[in-house]
Design a protein that fits this description.
single chain, mainly alpha, Four Helix Bundle (Hemerythrin (Met), subunit A), two-stranded antiparallel ribbon, 2 strands, Periplasmic protein CpxP
Length: 178
């Protein structure tokens, strides 16, 4: 059941990330989902974004206007080539999850189908990110790689903190139950 829940959550996140990626016009975002976007009926003219605490791909890197335009063009091309989100797959999963009689095999098959679609989208976005990376000068690439290493260290620290916190929680739970 945990795997199914994780697959459903990952699929939902994928859809929201994909819809966000489709709205990004500047190509300056490296990680999907870094800004919270609220859609309105006139999304092309009325967009409200709120920056998250995560970094953007090119924070701290000075891009030329030519590089920015090339990245915008890459993102626009990717948007046009990417197939639309298959909402019916999400609806199918919802029906399976809320069914009176749970059918694990059907849920597993649907989750695998959705996961495969997500993999295809991630591969396509990775291609675009690679093309964007190749537009950078060697100096800009070095700065980007350094910033990536810093983010990885921060994630390692958070992971260690989470592990130690959960161990403390388990330890205190065991001592109370005795």
């Amino acid at each position: 059941m945990r795997i199914v829940t994780a697959a459903v959550m990952a699929s939902t996140l994928a859809v929201s990330s994909l819809s966000h990626a489709a709205e990004v016009g500047s190509g300056d975002n490296w990680h999907p989902g870094e800004e919270l976007t609220q859609r309105s009926t006139q999304r092309s003219t009325q967009r409200s974004t709120q920056r998250s605490t995560q970094s953007h791909m090119f924070d701290g890197i000075s891009l030329t206007e030519h590089q920015r335009q090339q990245m915008r063009d890459l993102m626009q091309q990717a948007r046009h080539e990417q197939p639309p989100v298959n909402v019916s797959e999400l609806e199918t999963m919802h029906r399976l999850v809320t069914a009176e009689n749970f059918d694990e095999n059907a849920v597993r098959a649907q989750a695998e189908k959705m996961a495969n679609e997500q993999i295809a989208r991630q591969v396509e976005m990775a291609k675009v990110r690679n093309q964007m990376y190749r537009l950078l000068t060697p100096e800009q690439q070095a700065v980007l790689n350094e910033k990536h290493q810093q983010r990885m260290e921060q994630l390692r620290d958070v992971t260690q903190w989470q592990k130690s916190s959960s161990l403390k929680l388990l330890s205190s739970s065991n001592s109370r139950s005795q």
